[in-house]
Amino acid sequence: xxxxxxxxxxxxxxxxxxxxxxxxxxxxxxxxxxxxxxxxxxxxxxxxxxxxxxxxxxxxxxxxxxxxxxxxxxxxxxxxxxxxxxxxxxxxxxxxxxxxxxxxxxxxxxxxxxxxxxxxxxxxxxxx
Length: 128
Known about the structure:
4 helices, mainly alpha, 2 domains, 128 residues
């Protein structure tokens, strides 16, 4: 039985490395479950980017004496960063085509894509 336990442990580690299983440590990455969790994350992403931009702009304005200009510049940069973060969160799935460059996708979408790609294989194996 010791040999089988070692195999199960190596299999579990390999599946975790490939992203097929969730890590047992309870990693908190990806989209939160439910629409309220997703909405909360979108709000936090946008507001935090704006706050960071505004704080940096105000500090640089005070230090350099350029009263409204750096504040406005970093406010726009923070807004752009927040919108880009939200866009990355909801980026459409990358469709795998032969010869196409690999595009990074969010972990939740990558897992869903992997499950969809494995579905016909699982259906064929279960019918035999």
